[in-house]
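Question: what's this shape?

___
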Amino acid sequence: MKQGDLVVRKSYGGDVLFRIATMNQQFATLKGTDYRLLADAPIPDLSIVRDPEFTGAAKQVRIKVNESMRRMQEQRQQQMQKGEEELRRALNQGAPYFEVPGKVLHLDGDANYLKKSMQLYTQMRVPAHGIYAHESQMPDLVYRLLPQIKPDIVVITGHDGVLKSREPNDLYSLASYKNSQNFVNAVRVARDYEKNRDGLIVVAGACQSHFEALLQSGSNFASSPGRVLIHALDPVYIAIKASYTPIRDTINLSDVINGTISGIDGMGGIETLGKYRVGLPKPKTLTSVKPTV
C-alpha cells in the first residue's frame, strides 16, 4: 500500500472511495475521489481497490453523476429554445442574439476537484476563473480577487467535515468543523465587497459544512443541511444553474437543489435572481468594412 493508491475503509463498509494522500507506518490521510471528504484512517482498516469502476460506492456515484449531468444538459437545451422563442417573438424578427452567462470565480481546496470543476464549466460554456488554495487562505484571496475578476458568482469550497474530537452533540459550534470557520470568513469578505445577495451570488461549503453559519454570514447557497457528504461537483452544478438563469427570473430552489448529486440534505439556499443575459445584435465578422479616415 502506497501514496496514490485507491482504497476504501473496512469499518465503514467501503461506502466511499478514497485516494491515499499521505501515510506513515500506522495511519493514512485520505481524500475522497468523488466526495469532498478528507479523512484519517489506520492502515489495517484500509483495503486497496484495484478496479474502482466495479466497486459499489463508485457505481452508485457514477449513476447519480450521469443523471445530474443529463438533467443539466436537458435544462440548458430547454432554456435555449424557450429564450430564443421569447426573444424573437418580442422583437418580431429572427435576428441572431448573443449570450452572456454569469462569470464564476471558483476557489477550491483540492487541486483534483478544481480540475474536474473547470472541465465542467468549460463543457457548459460558463466563463470561469479557478484558483487552488488551502481553505485558510480563502478569505484573503476573496478580498484580493473579487475586485480583479469582478465575477457574478463566487464558489468557495474544498474539504470540510465534523471533527471526531468535538464536544458531544455540539454541531452548532464552528469549532466542531474542520474548515467551516474558514469558509464563513471568506463569505463575510465576499459580502463586505457586495452586500446585495443578487449582486454577487455566493456558493460555499464542502462535506458536512455548517450550513446555518454559512447562510447567516451571507451565502446564497451552502452545504450541508443534513451534515452529509456532498459530491465534488455539487457547488459547480449550482453555480452553472445560477450562471444560466435569466436575470429577470429567480433560480428555482427545488429544481437546483434536487438536481445536485447529494440532494436536499447536501445543499440548500435562499431565493436568488439569476445572472444570464442575452444581447442583440450578434457580433459579425467585419471583413468588408471600408475605412473612412
